[in-house]
Amino acid sequence: MPVADAAQILAQSPLFARLPQSERDAIARLAEVRAFAPGERLIERGAPAAALYAVRSGYVKVFLPGRAARDEHVIDIHGPGTLIGETAATGVGDYTVSAVALDTVEALAIPGEALNAALARNYDVVLTVMGAVTGSLRGLLNQVTELKMKSTAQRLAMFLVQLAPVQEGRAEIDLPYSKRVVAEKLGMTPETLSRSIAKLAPVGVTSGGRDRIVVADMEALADFAGFLPEEEDL
């Protein structure tokens, strides 16, 4: 991949957007494009954090592994423009989570040593890294809060509101991944997801096909979820 294209992918992330162009180019020269087949691991919890991955295409499930597959805890689903393995930016320690490709994934693998050298030359970016780690912790806290305080139907409603292309009126929402993966992301089984969709029927939610959800009234759905669409970034 040309250096300019790799640098452009890096610039999509807040972590790299604050770096001078010359630094992004230097990192891009060392980055390696890697392809992962569905089910292939990008990182493994407990393994040395040797590289940071910038997802170019496809979706990746980030999770805490358990003794069995049914015991794993899904943290989030990451798509294009996101980073996997932020621990590599700290220069110490092992990966704290695992990540697996849900479909064919292409990502830039950025060597931890190159990343750490760039951060050492740009202290303001170190602050950005600290902010990214804090944001991840905040996300985990919010997830725990949602699991404790929100019903399964409300969690699904919040997910749909955040995913919808419009905030008012009717919306057709194409799910970025399968309903099975949506269920994992929301902390429920596929059967519970189906029941949750049915529970949202009174506010105008119906299944529009295999990976599509139709919402008759986005404002009613947002009200059911417990927040207004414009509040989601607060």
From TrEMBL:
Keyword field contains Transcription: yes
Gene Ontology cellular component annotations, sorted alphabetically: cytosol
CDD domains membership: CAP_ED
InterPro entries tied to this protein: cNMP-bd_dom (IPR000595), cNMP-bd_dom_sf (IPR018490), Env_Response_Regulators (IPR050397), HTH_CRP (IPR012318), RmlC-like_jellyroll (IPR014710), WH-like_DNA-bd_sf (IPR036388), WH_DNA-bd_sf (IPR036390)
Keyword DNA-binding: yes
UniProt GO MF annotations: DNA binding; DNA-binding transcription factor activity
Domain Cyclic nucleotide-binding: 15-125
Domain of life according to the entry: Bacteria
Domain HTH crp-type stretches: 150-219
Record PROSITE patterns: CNMP_BINDING_3, HTH_CRP_2
UniProt KW keywords: DNA-binding, Transcription, Transcription regulation
PANTHER family in the cross-refs: CRP FAMILY TRANSCRIPTIONAL REGULATORY PROTEIN, HTH-TYPE TRANSCRIPTIONAL REGULATOR ARCR
Protein name: Transcriptional regulator, Crp/Fnr family
Species of provenance: Caenispirillum bisanense
Source species taxonomy: Bacteria, Pseudomonadati, Pseudomonadota, Alphaproteobacteria, Rhodospirillales
